[in-house]
Every structure is written in C-alpha cells, then in structure tokens.
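To illustrate this point, what follows is a protein record of this kind.

___
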Amino acid sequence: MKIGLLIVDMQKVFLQDQIEKLNVERACEHINYVAELLRSKNHCVIHIQDIEGAEDLNSELLDIVSEIKVEQNDIRITKEESNAFWNTELEQILLKQEIGLVIVAGFAAEHCVLFTYNGAKERGFKTVILQNGILSNNSDVINITYRDRNIISYPVIEFIVK
C-alpha cells in the first residue's frame, strides 16, 4: 500500500502574518517530518495550492511558506475550490500512484483541509488527518476536527512504513 500526504494551502497569503499566532512552526515540523519519512520510502507527497482570486494578488503570496520543505519529486497541484478534488487532477494522480491511504495536513482545518478530507473519503480512499499537522484561525476547531475525524500520529506512520 502506498501512502499519499496532501499538504493543503500552506501558503504565504494565508499564513505569513500569523506564523506565531497559529504556531505554524510546530505544524510544519510535523508535516516536514512525515513528508521526509514518506519520501524516503517512495511514498507520495503532494502540495496543494489555492489560486482562487490569484489575478488580484501578488504572485509571491501564492508561494508555499518557507517553513514547509518542498522537494523536486513532490507533486504540486493548484485548485480554485475548497475541496482539492473538485475540478483538479488529484484523484487521477492518487489512482495512478496507487495510493491506498491519504493523509491530509495543512490550513485551514475547518475549510480546505476538511473539504479535501471529505472529498478523499467520498472517492473511496482510506483517509486520515495528520495529528499536529493542521492549522486553523479558530483554536477550538482543531480539537473538534480531531474528535470527529480519523487521525494519525507520526509514530504510527513510522510503524506503517518500516
């Protein structure tokens, strides 16, 4: 079984003014650790960038925050909807890569992370949220997300990929 890590909307436009407030560094530490672990075992890391309304923004704001490591072999897709599966090639990429487990991480827990999680489940993928790998402008949303969704911690991922 191959694993796909979806890193959703970790972009300057959403996070650059909130790095300390949202504890972005901690989430990025978890995301980067899991991404590197998966890359080392030939699993799939996909960065998803929201470009909705991009024509009105400085293009640098659409970049992924520097705290997230992006490697050459990582896949990058863009989206214009909250659900990263909607009107994108994400489902085809996961099928082509033979992904059996989808791990969702990123920003914002109550919006694009949740909708992408639901989109993966609706398409029949086994789907989990990365514990300590999601962010929100509303602190209570993270605990509610963990309460109501399937989650996975990095020690479990370590065990699975060994």
